[in-house]
Amino acid sequence: MFANLQTEIADRYGIHFNDVALLEEALTQANYINEHPNYTGHDYQRLEFLGDAVMQQSTAVYLFKRYPDWDEGRLTELRIMMVQTRSFAALSRELHLDKYVQLGRGEELSGARMRDSLLEDLWEAFIGALYLDQGQQAVMDFLEQTLFAKVDSGFFQQFVDYKSKLQEFLQKNGAVKIVYETLDEVAEENNTQIFTASVSLNGDELARGTGHSIKEAEKAAARIAFEALQK
Q1: How far apart, in Å, are the Cα atoms of 162 and each of 40, 83, 115, 157, 202?
Q2: HSE toward the beta carbon, residue 138, CA cutoff 13 A
Q3: How far apart are CA 206 and CA 107, in angstroms?
Q4: pLDDT for position 174
Q5: CB 88 within 8 A of CB 118
Q6: Which of 146, 160, 184, 225: disulfide with 207, CB 3.0–4.6 Å?
Q7: What is the CATH number of domain 2-153?
Q8: What proportion of the chain, given as a percentage, has pLDDT over 90?
Q9: Does the pLDDT at position 87 exceed 90?
C-alpha cells in the first residue's frame, strides 16, 4: 500500500522517502495498532506534534522572505490564515492521505477516513515524517508546490471566519447591532441557487455578498465589509 503512495508522491512532487517506516507511521492511527497486537510500529501522534512546529516555522520563514516590506502584524495575520488546520484537510485530500491511512475497524465504519479533524492531523504528521527523513529544505520544496503555491489563489479565504472577524472589529469600542439579511434567491440554469445577503451596522448597510447558500452569502458580505473597513 505504501509503495503506491511512494510512487504517487515521487511522480507528483519528486519526493522519495529514504525511511518508508516514517511514512507508514505518519499514516497509522492508534486504533489500528490496538486492533493489531503484532503491529510493531507507532501511531502518527508524535509526528503530528513535530509537523505542527515545522509548519509554523516553515510558513514564517517563507512569509518573512517573500514580503520584506510587511510589518509583524501583516505577516502574523497571513501566517495564521495559512496554518489554520482546516486548510490541512484539503491538502491531505490532494495528497491522497485519506486513501492510505491505516484505521481501526470502528473508525473505518464511522467514516473517519473522510473526517477533517483526522486529515488535518495526517498532514502535520506527514510534514513531520518528511522533515525527519530529508530535512528542512525538502519540506520547503514540498510546501512551495502545495501550500505556498496557493497564497495568490484565494484558497485560504474559504477558511477564514469573516463574520467573527467583522463582529470583533465592529464591537471593539462597545456593543453594536449587526444584522444579516437574505435579499434575493435566484435559480441558475444548472438548478443551483444563488443567494444574496447583506450585513448592516445599526441599521446602515455595510456590504452585500453572494453564495450558493445563505451561509456563504453572509460570509461573503462579511468579508467585503471587513476588507472595506480595513482600508
Answers
A1: 45, 17, 23, 9, 18
A2: 18
A3: 45
A4: 86
A5: no
A6: 225
A7: 1.10.1520.10
A8: 59
A9: no
DSSP structure string for 17-29: -S-HHHHHHHTB-
133-146 pLDDT per residue, tens: 999 999 999 999 99
- Please state the domain extents for the chain: 2-153, 162-230
Quick one: cell of 227?
Answer: 476588507
Domain range 162-230, its CATH number among 3.40.50.720, 3.20.10.10, 3.40.50.2300, 3.30.160.20: 3.30.160.20
Q: Is 4 exposed, middle or buried (0-12, 13-18, 19+ CB in 10 A)?
A: exposed
| Binding residue ranges for Mg(2+) | 48, 121, 124
Which residues are marked as active site? 52, 124
Q: Scanning the structure block, which residue is given the C-alpha cell 472589529? A: 169
